[in-house]
Amino acid sequence: MTDAQALSAPDRAASAAAVELFRGAATALISDNLDRLPGLVGLRPFHRGGALAGIALTVRVRSGDNLAIHQALNIAQPGDVIVVDGGGDTSRALVGDIMKAIAESRGVAGFVIDGAIRDSAAFAASDFPCYARAAIHRGPYKAGPGEINVPVSVGGWTVRPGDVVVGDADGVVTFPAAIAASLITAVRAQEAREAEMLHMIGEGRYDGRYGKTAK
């Protein structure tokens, strides 16, 4: 296991700048402007509330084994999101309250787990973002193998180290920092169109044509 593919300083700076552009942006609008591609399907929020925005620190694990996640936490930087490819296996939890506490102490922005968690009540009482497939009491193995900072698949969607990660009550989307400028322009334009539509509906002027102004 290695962190040899960790982001360079310029790449990390670009990802961090992109994250700031998308704080508060709705995942639904981001998804619409990613051509409605499938994204990280099947995950749901387990935390009390609050949005997620950060930089992907990717981890691939053997089903039911969280050794690599512990090692990722050892190298995590503030603002990282631990994105775990657990193969969708929900037979054993990959993170719980202790790992949440470690992550929070290190400034990690949240967890995205293609697998299960435990201590779900602790997550439900917290604003630390956590998205996963399920909760289960059974604990993980800690034998490995695993990989850190490699492309991973979460719900059929490829996430790469340094991708921008945004989450809200609707779920999680990710995308490369290189497209952030054009993507946020499209998202803001859609926000404006939808705000105008809601205004028109409130005034009784909406004629059912998306993005069109009623006469």
Main sheet specs = 8 strands, mixed
The CATH architecture category equals 3-Layer(bba) Sandwich
Instruction: Note the gap between the termini.
Output: 63 Å
* Basic shape: globular
- Mean pLDDT, as a whole number? 93
Q: Compute the gyration radius: what is it?
A: 18 Å
Individual helix count: 6
How would you describe this structure to a colleague?
The protein is an alpha/beta fold. The chain has a single domain (9-176), classed as Ribonuclease E inhibitor RraA/RraA-like (Glucose Oxidase, domain 1). Helix content is 30%, strand content 24%. It contains six helices and 13 strands. It has helices at residues 9-21, 27-32, 67-75, 97-105, 120-124, 180-202, and strands at 44-45, 52-61, 80-85, 93-95, 110-114, 116-117, 130-132, 134-135, 146-148, 152-154, 157-159, 164-168, 171-175. The strands form three sheets. Strands 1, 2, 3, 5, 7, 9, 12 and 13 form an eight-stranded mixed beta sheet that branches. Strand 2, helix 3 (67-75) and strand 3 form a beta-alpha-beta unit. It is globular and about 60 Å long. The model has no long low-confidence stretch (mean pLDDT 93). Substrate binds at residues 96-99, 118. InterPro entries: RraA/RraA-like, RraA/RraA-like_sf. Pfam families: RraA-like (PF03737).
Describe the structure using short key phrases.
8-stranded mixed sheet, 30% helix, 3-stranded parallel sheet, Glucose Oxidase, domain 1, 215 residues, alpha/beta, 6 helices
